[in-house]
Amino acid sequence: MRRTLLLRPSSLATAAFTTTTTTTTTNPTIRRRRLLRRRAVNPEATMAGTVKLYDRHVFVLDPVRGHELWPTHVEESSFLLIADYKKAQKALTAAAGAAGTVGKMFTLKFTVAEALGHALAAPSDEENPAITFKDHGLHTVLLFSPTAPSLAIRGLTKADIPTLVKLLVTKENYSAALPSALPSQVIIQPLPGKDLFVCAHASRDIRCKTCGPRLVGWLKEEAIKAAKSGSGEDEVRIWPSSHVGGHMHAGNVLVFPSGDWYGQVNDPAKAQLVLEKKGVEDDLKKLWRGRIGLNQMQQDELVSEGN
Known about the structure:
It is built from nine helices and ten strands. By secondary structure, it is an alpha+beta fold. Strand 1 (56-62), helix 3 and strand 2 (108-114) form a beta-alpha-beta unit.
């Protein structure tokens, strides 16, 4: 005799909930739909403490594809090199664990930044960045840390990635060790002024696709106004970037060298604030998400102090 198992309505609800929340998929369309069903964020609530602790930020410049063409997960793309950087970091961490090595290991965050036609993306100012990237695999990374000067490293090859990652993970004063560790043709130069990275990762989340590009436009407009009036930084570079975390806080913008993260920068007035002011000044408190090098408790304390 066949037996029929009857589930109570509450059991059916639980089963359905468990299935939809634990099943993973690589289908980008399904991923985006699930992201859009996430709970909305209260715009009046503080965002402080929403940046996970990390020590150094590495931006790989992409002079070939625009942000609209990036895959959903850039860390799986060998073309964009993030996969190579993360692989080198993982291998280093695994080796240290296997050897029982005790010592400080710095946490790195890797992000792609759109650099179409940007001179910094080329090995030198005289070369075409798209050609050198596609034909020779030469690329540029921008390095930011709260304890070191902001740097552009130009003319790197894939073979240089493990050496660079090892320095960044293990060396306190990595900037002093870079010249002797990397090939002589690699150019290491300081980054004066200010760099702003706006998450505009279209295929990752509809909120970033919608908020990111217009925020880039507002920031560029405000930077031009400030330059004409003589009230802004000597140099301001604005970069569309890949996913940084916290889609629900879009538009997200990261400001260096301070390392401050801001969210819900969703109108021109807020864009102007982020460009002109810094840190956690009163007008920026509600937009401030956190800062590189600080844990959640330190971020909360900084907001309370208003520094």
